[in-house]
């Protein structure tokens, strides 16, 4: 459960989710990742470190440049955990639909 906790903690921040979205398009240098954000490269590096610690990003250094690559395996575990609650939510949505249709 610790890995799952780390995954959800890492995904809880919008900047980190945006970084993962960028990395879903392919590997990128840290400087490329930082471009769209109105924060320092150091701040972006801290976000990347959180993602790396959660196992969501792999960082490799080539020369003086650090490159980041998405590692989606932890998200698969998180999606699997969430999927266990799908039948609950589907039941709630079905009940809401019946209510809105006046069947309840």
Description:
This protein is α+β, with helices and mostly antiparallel strands. α1 packs across α5. It has six helices and three strands, in the order ααβααββαα. The relative contact order is 0.16. β2 and β3 form a beta hairpin. The protein has a domain of 71 residues: Orthogonal Bundle (Arc Repressor Mutant, subunit A).
The CATH class of the domain at 2-72: Mainly Alpha
Mean pLDDT: 91
Q: Could you tell me the CATH topology label of the domain at 2-72.
A: Arc Repressor Mutant, subunit A
Estimated share of beta-strand residues? 5-15%
Assembly form of the protein: single chain
Write down how many β-strands occur, each being a DSSP E stretch of 2 or more residues.
3
Largest sheet: 3 strands, antiparallel
Total helix count? 6
Properties at a glance:
alpha+beta; 6 helices; Arc Repressor Mutant, subunit A; 104 residues
Short description:
The protein contains six helices and three strands.
SSE topology:
Layout: H1 2-11, H2 14-23, E1 28-29, H3 30-34, H4 41-53, E2 57-62, E3 65-70, H5 73-83, H6 86-100
Helix pairs in contact: 1-4, 1-5
């Amino acid at each position: 459960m610790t890995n799952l906790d780390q995954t959800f903690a890492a995904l809880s921040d919008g900047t980190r989710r945006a970084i993962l979205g960028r990395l879903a398009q392919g590997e990128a240098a840290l400087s490329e990742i930082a471009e769209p954000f109105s924060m320092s490269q150091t701040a972006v590096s801290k976000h990347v470190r959180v993602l790396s610690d959660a196992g969501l990003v792999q960082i490799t250094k080539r020369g003086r440049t650090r490159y980041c690559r998405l590692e989606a395996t932890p998200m698969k575990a998180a999606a699997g955990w969430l999927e266990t609650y799908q039948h609950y939510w589907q039941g709630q949505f079905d009940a809401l639909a019946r209510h809105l249709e006046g069947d309840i």
